[in-house]
Amino acid sequence: MHTVTLIPGDGIGPEVSEATVRVVEASGIPIAWERVEAGSEVMHKYGTPVPDEVINAIIKNRIALKGPLATPIGTGFASANVTLRKRLNLFANVRPAKTIPGVKTRFENVDLIVIRENSEDLYSGLEHIVVPGVVESLKIITETACLRIGRFAFEYARRHERKKVTAVHKANIMKLADGLFLECLRRIARDYPEIEYQELIVDNTCMQLVTRPEQFDVMVMENLYGDIVSDLCAGLIGGLGLTASANIGEGDVAMFEAVHGTAPDIAGQNKANPIALILSAVLMLRHMGEMEAASRIERAVMAMLAEGKVRTRDLGGNASTTDICDAIIEKMH
Ligand code: NAI
């Protein structure tokens, strides 16, 4: 029996989490879900969006499945997501983007992985007003974090028999910060002679991604570029309703979540697409070594999407969250 910490989250979080729990349970894997609350509701009750109880539960169980958490823009409390990643030292964010048969997009052959450094860069939260009207935001880049994410990316490529790693940067402008990132990546690349290593400036990367995405395999980048580029990649395969992610830390602690946010415009209406979180649970099951259950769920999701009968609004249909969940479970039988 596995125990998994479940954070249902804000907005559409509880709806897509419930659908995901039902699908995982239907796969036959015995999981005890330990539910803990984080996010904006908790903030009102406890004065922090991430109470210690949440951190302790994840450290104890080592695995968490998380719904989206709301973060106020411009003012208010620090992002609960960034807090979770920092306090749990979840330094690597892994976001696969693979073409899904039956989901019409501009490209038919996307199969890439964005690996985003999760712990530093402009997300250090170090901002201050120098004088009124002038703000300084500090971008922190360390050798330790660059070597760690570089090693992770190449190990990932080797384990998954991937052929190429692209380091995405802006070292022509940020010569010291992104220069250090590249220097570390080059050092790591030498240990993996069987894997092609490429460097590409981030703006050119975006242009290449929307014209010839098939040239990319594993991509590794700092936090901010990773945040933006991974959403771009989500768009390449059909949008936020389909894109899963894993946050991996040291000592095998891992938290799995959809790339999308709380979707306040459709929250509480049984309209959200639960597939992104269901595919995040597939990544979670693989991480736990439950390969068969993971493949069963993934096959059922792909079969349902290929058939194209049951679709939520984001994919041009009018099915509900519950309809999608029922259709996936039916395909598993
Ligand atoms: P969002 O991802 O919540 O929504 C963007 C658009 O995509 C909306 O039109 C929404 O309806 C649609 N959408 C998103 N997920 C969907 C789904 N599963 N099914 C169908 N449609 C879906 O992004 P937004 O509006 O920028 O952020 C809203 C809140 O979510 C903010 O408070 C933000 O901080 C938070 N957020 C949390 C994340 C996390 O917990 N990992 C990630 C991104 C945003």
Describe this structure as you would to a colleague:
It is a single chain. The protein is α/β, with parallel strands linked by helices and 333 residues long. The chain folds into 2 domains: 1-91 and 242-333, 3-Layer(aba) Sandwich (Isopropylmalate Dehydrogenase), CATH 3.40.718; 106-237, Isopropylmalate Dehydrogenase (3-Layer(aba) Sandwich), CATH 3.40.718. It is built from 11 helices and 12 strands. The chain has helices at 13-26, 40-46, 52-61, 80-87, 143-159, 177-189, 202-209, 223-236, 275-287, 291-307, 321-332; strands at residues 2-7, 31-35, 63-66, 92-98, 111-117, 127-131, 134-137, 164-169, 196-201, 218-221, 244-248, 254-258. Strand 11 (244-248) and strand 12 form a beta hairpin. Helix 1 runs parallel beside helix 11 (321-332) and helix 10 (291-307) crosses helix 11. The longest helix is centred in the middle third of the chain and has 17 residues, at 143-159. The two termini are 22 Å apart. The structure holds 1,4-dihydronicotinamide adenine dinucleotide. The site of 1,4-dihydronicotinamide adenine dinucleotide (NAI) has 22 residues, from loops.
